Amino acid sequence: VAAGDGARLGELLEPMHSADIADLLEQVDSGRRREILLLAPWHFDGEVLSELDETLREEVIAFLPPEVLAEAVRDLDSDDVVDLIEDLEPPQQEAILDALEDADRVAVEQALGYPEYSAGRLMQREVVRAPEHWTVGETIDHMRANKKTLPDQFYHVIVVDPGIRPVGYVTLGKLLSAKRSVPLTDILEDSFRTIPVTQPGAEVAYLFKQYHLISAPVVDEGGRLVGVITIDDAMNVLDEEHEEDYLRLAGVGDTSLSDKVLTTAKGRFPWLMVNLVTANVAASVISQFEATIQQIVLLAVLMPIVASMGGNAGTQSLAVAVRALATRDLTASNTWRVVRREALVGVLNGLAFGAMMGAVVALWFGEPMIGAVIAVALLLTLIGAAVGGVLIPIALERAGVDPAVASGPFVTTITDIVGFFVFLGIATMVLL
Amino acid sequence: VAAGDGARLGELLEPMHSADIADLLEQVDSGRRREILLLAPWHFDGEVLSELDETLREEVIAFLPPEVLAEAVRDLDSDDVVDLIEDLEPPQQEAILDALEDADRVAVEQALGYPEYSAGRLMQREVVRAPEHWTVGETIDHMRANKKTLPDQFYHVIVVDPGIRPVGYVTLGKLLSAKRSVPLTDILEDSFRTIPVTQPGAEVAYLFKQYHLISAPVVDEGGRLVGVITIDDAMNVLDEEHEEDYLRLAGVGDTSLSDKVLTTAKGRFPWLMVNLVTANVAASVISQFEATIQQIVLLAVLMPIVASMGGNAGTQSLAVAVRALATRDLTASNTWRVVRREALVGVLNGLAFGAMMGAVVALWFGEPMIGAVIAVALLLTLIGAAVGGVLIPIALERAGVDPAVASGPFVTTITDIVGFFVFLGIATMVLL
C-alpha cells in the first residue's frame, strides 16, 4: 500500500482512530514509517502524536513539516500538549511552543514549571467554574454563552468563592436534572476533594481509585483553583505505575519495544550486574564447602534444588508484600500479623516439599541421610525466604526506598545464599 | 476505642469515607472486627461492603443483622450489588436478593446470568436514554421530570432508535451548552462505540484505555441497549488484571492478605510444585556430569552463577514480552523484529558479563581455562535466555494460553537447565 499512492493511503487512514494510527506507526519498521509520513503527513494530527510511544515521537516530529505540526498541536487540551512535549529535546519543544497561541503557550510553560510526575503536569487548565452564589439556570446560561471555550470533556462545574478557591462541585447530571432556580450550593457533591498542585501523580491515582473520583480540582499553595485532573489522566498514571512495578519485579527499568538494541541492553545491565555480584557471593559460600562436595558429589547435584525452591518462595512473598504496600493494605498496624502469616505459610510448604524431596532422595538415590538433610534444609530455606520476602520490602519502604525496585533478582540471590549455606552446612555437620 | 462505647465509635466513623472504613476493617484482626461490627452495625452500609475485600465480605455479612443488611444494599446501583454478591455463598446471596425490591432483584439476577468477567457483569442497568428525534430541550425536560430514577453518576445520554438500539451518544457538557432547539442527532460524539454483553472484561478495559472512553453502551445479540459501562468499572478491571499479572510473574495465584494461612499455602503450592519438578530435571542434568565435578570441584562452585544470570536475563525478556502482548504492542507483524532485537541484547550483555566473569575466574582463581569456559557458557546462556524469554510467551499466546501464567518460575528453571548443560558440557569437552 505504502508504495507511492498517498491518496489511497489517506483513504485508508481516514476512518481509523488516532490511537490505532499510532499503533500502526509503532509496528512498522523505521523505513516504512518514513514513507508513510512523507506520503500523508496531514493525517498525523496532535492526537496521533499524543498516542505515540515516546521514543518514536521525536523521530516522527522531526519528519513532519512545521505547518503540519503547528496545525496538529493547536487543537489539543493543555495537558495533552504538556504530555506531548515534556520528554522532547529543547529545539523540538521550542518549535511546538512557537506554534501555539500566546495564551496556550503560557499555560503549557507554566505546567512545565511544575515538578515532573506532579499533579501540575497531569492537570488540564481548562476548567468550568461558577461563583458560589449562582443558580443552576445562571450556570447553564453562562455555559451556553461560552460554548466555544468549554473543554472537550468535563464532568463537574467547580464552585468557587470570590478568591477563586474551590468550595465544592456539581455533577453535570445534577445540573441537568435540577430546576433552574436551585442554588448551586444546594446540589454540591459529597465526594469533593481538592488536590495540591505539587502532589505526586502516584498519590493522585491512588485518591481517584480509593474514592472513586471522576474529576478533582487542583489548587496552588494559596488554595486557588489552577486546573482539574480527570479520571482518564489518573487511569493512565495507574497504568504506567503498574507497568513499571511489573517490569521492576523482573529487574527491568523503563523500557519500550521501540528502544534501540544498545539502549535496551544498557537498561537491563544494572540488575544483571547486581546479580553477578550476589551470585559470586553465593558461589563463595559454596566454595567454603568444597571439601564436602569433593566427598559427596550428590550434594552439588541437589543444591540448585534448594536454591531455586527458596528463590521462588521468596519471590512469591515479595510480590504479595510489594502489592500490599502499594495498595496500602499492608501498614504499620498489621505488619506483625502479615509476617507471622508468611512464616506459617513457609512452615507448611516447607514441611510439604521437604518431605517430598527427602523421600525422593532417600528412595530414588538410596541415600536416606542426604534425604533427611535436604528435607530440613528445604524447610528452613522456605521459612527464611517467606519471612525475608516480606521483611525486605517493608524495611525498604520504612527507609524511604520504593520497595518495587528491590525486587526479584535481589530476593532470588539472597535465598540462593541462604539455601546453599543451610544445605551444605547441615550436610557437612551431619554427613562428615 | 472499641472498648464498648458504640456512640463514640459512631462519631469517629461518621466523617470517614466508606473506602476508608473498609480499609480499617481489613487491617484490624478478626476479634476486633467483630467488636466494631457489633457496636455500630448501622455504619456499615452497602458502599462499605462493596469496598471490602472479598474474603472478609462473607464474614462481615454474616455478622450484620438482616434489617441492617437489607437497608445497606437497597441504595446501591445494580452493578455494585452484582459485584457484592457474585462471590458469596448461595444462602447469603439469597438473603441479599430477598432484601431488594422486585425490579432490582430481577436486574441483579439477569446480570448474574451473564458469564463471569463479562461486560454483562460489569455494566449498570440504570441508563439514561433518549429517542433519536428528541431535541436538547425535550431531553432536559425529561431528565428534570424523572430526577429520582437517574443514576448517581452518568456522563452521556444514549440516543436510541425505536427498537432501543443505540445509534450514538451525547455528552452532558454538549447537552448543557447547546440551544434547547438543537436535535440530539446534531451533537453526537465521534467516540461512540457499543460493547457486546458477552465481551470479556479485559477487552472492555483495553477499549476504554485505547480509545479514551468515559462510558459505553452495552448491547445484547440483537443490538438492543441493556446497560452501560463507565470508566471507573474499566479502571477497576484494568487494576485487577495488572495485579493478577504481577502476582503471576512471581508464581502466585489469586490472593489476598485476608486469606487464611492454609488457603495461602495452598495457593502458592502449585508453582512451587512445578518448580520442584523442573529443578529435579536441572539436577538430573548436573548428575550427568558428576564425574567432571568430582575432578574439578570449582565447577560446582561456579555453576549457580551461570544459572542465576540466565534466569534473570530470561525473566527480563519474559516480562517485557508479556507486557507487550498485553498492550498489543507485540503482534504477528513485528514478532521477528522483536525476537532479533532480544537476541542482540543477549549477545551484548552476554559478551559483557562473559568477559567480566571470565576475567574474575582467570585472575582471582588463577584458572584461565575455566575462565574461558564460563565466558562462553554465559554468552550462550544469556542469548538462549533472551530468545526463550520472548518466544515462550508468544508461543503460549498463539496456543491460546494466557502468557502471564507461564511466568517467572517456568523460565527460571528452563534457563537453569540450559545454563547447567552448557557450562558443564563445555567444561567436560574442553577440560577433561
CATH homologous superfamily title of the largest domain in chain A: SLC41 divalent cation transporters, integral membrane domain
Helix- and strand-based class of chain A?
mainly alpha
Question: Strand order of the main beta sheet of chain A, please?
Answer: 1-2-3
- The strand count of chain A comes to 6
What does this structure look like?
The structure is a homodimer of 432-residue chains. Chain A has 20 helices and 6 strands. Chain A starts with 5 loop residues before the first helix and ends with a helix. Chain A folds into 3 domains: 6-113, Alpha Horseshoe (MgtE N-terminal fold); 129-249, CBS-domain (Roll); 261-431, SLC41 divalent cation transporters, integral membrane domain (Tetracycline Repressor, domain 2, Orthogonal Bundle), CATH 1.10.357. The radius of gyration of chain A is 29 Å and the shape is elongated. The longest helix of chain A has 31 residues, at 368-398. Chain A is mainly alpha-helical and 432 residues long. In chain A, strand 2 (156-160) and strand 3 (166-171) form a beta hairpin. At the A-B interface, helix 2, helix 11, helix 12, helix 13 and helix 14 of A face helix 2, helix 11, helix 12, helix 13 and helix 14 of B.
